[in-house]
């Protein structure tokens, strides 16, 4: 309960201690902190298996978010990184999973270290720290960049937000909808509409549909962007948005020839959303070690959720049995296998 409340519901240990004391179960803060540390150590073998599973994927989604870290007299801005394996959009049968890492800063050396042994497709934003990962001669193998159309869409959506425009007009403020933004947004939204019809189909089926319907649409979009870009001031937000797409056209259109690629990086953004919401509750990590523990527990809890497993029930059962569980059968305790284990035990009973 302490682990799930802290990392699944984002309730700091001091608030938990106060609540438990009111319920007649006083637990000291140091005892709770020791329990978190001990649990992370005990669960580390499962964490390593989750990590290996994610890094064996044909395609991973990557993202990061800020996490304040307590320092002398202030807080510094650390980072929580996430890599998500989810093959379900292209009909994959392997279970989804997520692995999180913590760092004190956002240097490119961190994702380069995380993905040092990975080769495949990386679906992520245009963070410069990923650049070295895409080098053709990279060892142990090539990582192909796949850009996120949801990121590309945002500046155009801002300029074509009908509801925001109506609110500004109602308030007596000047507001003009951009016809250029509206047209770009229409074409991008049409790409997403095509994707909805093929979600969950095999990679080959997705590629076939994209070749017929998405290829001419992206070609028309590129022509339109090149026509409209010279008409805009260089510093205009729409011009910047167009540059963002045109300079990365190869990675933005990789999905046309590879059915494994998604149109967006939403899988990774969903994984870090809880951290972004939780920051208002826990405010900061107490130390680098606290950040590392948080990353470990986020990995296990988010992976359990992705497999439709109750994280608290899973943690309670695994912590109760892992000490006596054969090391050769640890895979049985992974979230996606735990459901099968629970069912088989219920049937035996």
How far apart lie the N and C ends?
Answer: 26 Å
Report the average pLDDT across residues. 92
Largest sheet: 5 strands, mixed
What percentage of amino acids are in beta strands?
5-15%
Cα radius of gyration in angstroms: 23 Å
**Spatial strand order of the main sheet:** 3-2-1-4-5
Low-confidence residue ranges: none
Q: Any idea what the shape is?
A: globular
Helix-strand pattern, N to C? HHHEEEHEEHHHHHHHHHH
Count of helices?
14
What's the total number of strands?
Answer: 5
Q: Which structural class is indicated by helix and strand composition? A: alpha/beta
Percent helix: 40-55%
Please explain how this structure is put together.
The chain is an alpha/beta fold and 349 residues long. A 5-stranded mixed beta sheet has the order 3-2-1-4-5. It has helices at residues 2-7, 13-22, 29-55, 109-114, 149-159, 162-170, 179-198, 203-228, 237-246, 249-252, 266-282, 288-306, 311-321, 335-348, and strands at 59-71, 74-85, 97-103, 120-123, 143-146. The protein is 54% helix and 11% strand. It has 14 helices and 5 strands. The model has no long low-confidence stretch (mean pLDDT 92). The radius of gyration is 23 Å and the shape is globular.
């Amino acid at each position: 309960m302490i682990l799930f409340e802290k990392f699944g519901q984002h309730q700091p240990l001091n608030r938990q201690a106060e609540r438990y004391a009111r319920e007649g179960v006083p637990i000291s803060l140091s005892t709770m902190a020791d329990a978190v540390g001990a649990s992370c150590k005990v669960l580390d073998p499962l964490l390593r298996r989750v990590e290996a599973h994610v890094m064996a994927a044909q395609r991973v989604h990557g993202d990061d978010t800020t996490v304040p870290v307590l320092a002398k007299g202030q807080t510094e801005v650390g980072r929580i990184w996430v890599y998500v394996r989810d093959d379900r959009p292209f009909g994959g049968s392997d279970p989804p999973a997520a692995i999180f890492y913590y760092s004190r800063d956002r240097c490119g050396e961190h994702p380069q270290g995380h993905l040092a042994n990975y080769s495949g497709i990386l679906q992520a934003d245009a963070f410069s720290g990923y650049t070295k990962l895409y080098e053709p001669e990279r060892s142990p193998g090539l990582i192909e960049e796949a850009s996120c159309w949801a990121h590309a869409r945002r500046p155009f959506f801002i300029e074509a937000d009908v509801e925001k425009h109506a609110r500004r007009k109602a308030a007596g403020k000047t507001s003009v909808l951009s016809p250029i933004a509206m047209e770009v947004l229409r074409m991008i939204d049409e790409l997403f509409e095509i994707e909805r019809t093929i979600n969950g189909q095999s990679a080959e089926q997705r590629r076939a549909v994209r070749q017929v319907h998405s290829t001419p649409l992206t070609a028309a979009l590129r022509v339109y962007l090149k026509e409209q870009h010279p008409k805009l001031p260089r510093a205009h937000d729409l011009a910047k948005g167009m540059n963002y797409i045109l300079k990365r056209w190869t990675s933005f259109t990789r999905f046309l020839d590879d059915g494994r690629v998604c149109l967006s990086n939403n899988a990774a953004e969903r994984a870090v959303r809880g951290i972004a919401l939780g920051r208002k509750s826990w405010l900061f990590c107490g130390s680098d070690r606290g950040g590392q523990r948080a990353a470990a527990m986020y990995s296990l809890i988010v992976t359990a959720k992705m497999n439709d497993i109750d994280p608290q029930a899973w943690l309670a059962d695994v912590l109760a049995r892992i000490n006596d569980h054969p090391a050769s059968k640890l895979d049985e305790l992974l979230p996606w296998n735990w459901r099968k284990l629970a069912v088989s035990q219920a049937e035996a009973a």
